[in-house]
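Appendix B, Record 12. Input sequence as logged:
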Amino acid sequence: NFWFVSCSTHLLATLLFVDYLFFSLRVETIAPIVHEVQRLTSDANEGQRLKGGFQLHFNGYSTGFISFDVNAVQLKTHMENSLNAAHIDILKTINRSNVVPGIGRVDVSRIQVGSSGGYAWDITFKTAVGNIGDIDSAPLTVTNLLTGVGATLILSTIVEGNSIGGGFSLGFLDSETRFLPHDVSSEGMKNALLEDIPKHHDCGRNPHRPNK
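Logged structural output:
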């Protein structure tokens, strides 16, 4: 997030008139982009051969049946087209103001594991921000439809996504504002400056230079 803050304070220029000194500041909250990575791993008891498949679920959306040996490109397509409000190619063109957020775009890679025909798919959340399934979004879950003795599907987090939290305060003219949340609105910041910085003349509005 970022905010533009304009403030003015009185400056005595001569004994005949009062001029104004203007400050225009930009306050910005930023953090490094860290994409969440989760791993889906299938396996079965030694000597077994996996068959069947699974379904994935995210925030009320579900995929259809996905084969146990789905490749990376196919799994990406399943997820992006089923776990969003619309097909991924048209998602950005629809009005999403009243739509349940989906999974967005993902990248998928796959490696084979064990001797039962199991795989590990690494799923990178490219547009869903933050810690998926914790404080920032609903979790990705799986329904196990695999066949084979001891057939399992395990979802684990490899890299936790990053998101901004907490807050800050602003110091100006030897005063400091109250604690402001990281996503404070422009009106909230304006009110904090107006109420907490006693030496200011005006903040948040376009100041007007008086006629001399």
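The CA atoms of residues 38 and 157 lie 4 Å apart.
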